[in-house]
Amino acid sequence: MNTIILNGSPKGNSINSNSRIFAEEFIRNMKNPCEIRCIANADTKELARYAAGFDAIIIILPLYIHAMPGIVMKFIENMEPAATEDKYIGFIIQAGFMETAQERFVEAYFADLAKQLNYNYLGTVSKGEAAGIYMYPKMFKKVFRLLNDLGSAYEETNAFDKNIVKELGKPYELSKSILVILSIVNKIGLSNVGWHRELKKNNTFDKRLDKPFL
Ligand SMILES: Cc1cc2nc3c(=O)[nH]c(=O)nc-3n(C[C@H](O)[C@H](O)[C@H](O)COP(=O)(O)O)c2cc1C
Q1: 190 and 127 share a domain?
Q2: HEC string of 32-49?
Q3: Which of 37, 65, 88, 126 has the most crowded CB, counting CB atoms within 10 A?
């Protein structure tokens, strides 16, 4: 199926964009890799018209403040309903928080959107805990392997493999025991180590408790 991949991160093609990395890993093992285009800095009207010429559109996007980036919304608003019954759309969400339960509201919207646009819905893949990928790629070899497999299975079957989607979607919700461990890590300040290092690097550590709007 002739498929276009759209990177929905506002960072576009930047080396810091995790959506870019997801897109590249998704097509890595394909025999005929899909074209990847960025929504950022594109004329969304023109891009929507161009994407409509493909059999399938897969949008890879991050979550910012629990929501899709505004540029993705703008792209969607420029899409026209399909005139035929043979168009497909799917989504791959990658985001920082661990629990993919957070993605369920956006997922419900995407499922409904596909219906409104007369597109067949390929589904939505969700991966949490993805913020550090561009910084520590070596720690995400398993995620890359799953994305490579997801892409090659998609090329063969025109569908997202259910088992891979399930694996990427873990954890849906954190277990009680993990929550207890995380609250201890939080209490003793271990979760602050990375943030504090960044604040010190930027000479803002002393201002971290400022409340300028009070
Ligand atoms: C301002 C801001 C808000 C964010 N909000 C969320 C959020 O609500 N939920 C979440 O899971 N991750 C959140 N993240 C993390 C991003 O989803 C994550 O870093 C993602 O990998 C960024 O993708 P990109 O590099 O392709 O833009 C946020 C990051 C930033 C900088």
Answers
A1: no
A2: CCCEEEECCCCCHHHHHH
A3: 126
